């Protein structure tokens, strides 16, 4: 053998073969900052592209199920529950995603993927209202995405 | 908090975390109506795009495995068996898809996705024979897609 | 060479390299037969799993974009528009999917995939109302799925 | 027809069939806040799961190409370039994703999907260092994700 | 800014925005070595799992279309043709995959992905015949996978 | 019924519903032959497209998780570990992929898919160095892909 490249060529899934099958729950949340007009259009269901929040829930739920395709070292998991909820404030929407799973590894990445994709879908639905006259987004932000809680049943 | 939108923003997977891991079987069937010439071309393996029924079986099997990507609130499942069979009549083909799974939820959606995608693939393979001189499909139909039986081992 | 297997080993995409890039439109429709109570629950947005029709539109739209992954000999296409609409009758829902594309091949398979997946998603959302006391579906059917019109700009 | 449900059942891709094929560029950025020890472990390539930043670039690039699967109303696009860069600060990493495309619609959602998935992958790679003794993430945040610039060639 | 990591964090798609839209063709081939009994079972269509070669063609065709999902720095492409052919020898099968595309970049990776996945599918179909009494594969090999020719129309 | 087509229309997953849930491990390996200059450029991390080996590990790991999407009759599996390693020789690179799983079926196809996609990604990363002045690949080969060992815990 000529050479063995280690530190740069490594990216390895954690081996969870010997872990216990227990109930695991994770909750993640995050915000999207929007113009006040946009928030009102969402509440009154006047957005041209359609029902913003249901579309975002569906997108976030599908994305949470795709986590192991998106995050290279995540294990494929038969998750048993995904739920996504919103709280609407005057200038922002908060999304919360809870994921449950009975198996060998935690599901915080699944919850984070669910939240970020729900928020990205909100953004996509309201692009035409959020853009300024030059086609830029001076206000729109996705922010404060975090894991609220991670639980592992004893 | 400014507002809480419920009825329109809801789409929620059923939480199956506490369900039992038992054997579940589902069988679905459906039909595609075709011209009699098309049926004969399929039986005699004379269709230009290739082997219609094997291609349809492969497509339906792969689709059944993709059910949780296609149907937003379906759980990702390690299904343990998919089989697809055809019965050929003078003016229609019947497809039957059986799916098995050992786990926490039924697999009728997987069987339905398998059947519909097998039938859609039949359609795609015979498009050039089914189309009329204006490029329309006056005869082709996918019809009577239903769940034949759903079994849950006690 | 020992042998050359043709008739059974063939499944071949049509070569569209030399086709013109023109606007192509296809419209497909289909029905799901449901209990009258289910129809009322959908209209009144009382279905436990959530907003049935918006979830079905989102699922059908995403599925139409996945057509070349589902139907083996379909070409991957940058489709330029997908829209899905419903008409609700006393005992059935009709879905119509229109797909547009500027390119080298027609989009009727995309429209058919959009319709069938929208209808399958309706089924999934109302499973608990449609099932009888033995967990079977005596009434639910997806039926009369067809291509309404296929247009190719001159 | 019995009823026609509009406001709740609508979610519609913008029809871009008639738009011009021009060069479009979008740049998005975002941050992940991390412990200082984690930042040092990344710079010194001492993270147990492997090369954090290259893994994040690969994940973000693949995710940008999956945008139309993740965001329901995004069009499938033959994007012509994706690049992802990082700037590393004492307590945070900034990711910037630039996407180019020659076609009928802008690519800011692709750039945002690239950034968020690169940052989520950083998180996944350093989970064991970021977690506290109770398995929680008191410091980790993905924040200030925004579109820096969107350009459309005249 | 604290640091800028370059050599390890780089993985960048080639920017093809300014390349010409011309016809591109690539042909790749490869072999799978099999037991003579397995070859005979394939020719006589006696393999328990089903039609080996058609299933392999369908799998290879679908995989070629997925190239940009599998190979991180490949561009998503609307390929216009995929065809896969086999030549059967006494102790091996040769697969050839030809891919065509009208656009800004070559398609040799697509042809290679088509060939390798067709050969992997052959392997999967004949596993039970190829395995020895200890469940090992002493003979089976995929080998000599190469690009036969790459053409770019002037 | 008019006819029943069997031998040509069959492609059937093995039913593993009754198999035991035990630990299963598989290791596969394979080689890519490259120019000596290319090998040196990889070792010295001078390849223009970026970090070749880490990108290949990430691609191979993601591909191993996609096995049931690529190989039609493979079961979807919650694999518990994937690792990919390289040995570098003067004119070739050897990739080894090990996959673990606790469940009802072996994972040799997953290991083979991991190896081949890691090697294909190496190829893609070094295309510009491997091509000759006519854009052809006179030296590059993927070869000797085999299953090294398959273990099933008693």
TrEMBL record, chains A, B, C, D, E, F:
It catalyses: (8S)-3',8-cyclo-7,8-dihydroguanosine 5'-triphosphate = cyclic pyranopterin phosphate + diphosphate. Its EC number is 4.6.1.17. GO terms for molecular function: cyclic pyranopterin monophosphate synthase activity. The keyword Lyase applies. CDD domains: MoaC_A. Pathway: Cofactor biosynthesis; molybdopterin biosynthesis. It is an enzyme of class 4 (lyase). The active site is at residue 124. Keywords: Lyase, Molybdenum cofactor biosynthesis. Substrate binds at residues 73-75, 109-110. HAMAP family: MoaC_A. Homohexamer; trimer of dimers. Catalyzes the conversion of (8S)-3',8-cyclo-7,8-dihydroguanosine 5'-triphosphate to cyclic pyranopterin monophosphate (cPMP). This is Probable cyclic pyranopterin monophosphate synthase.
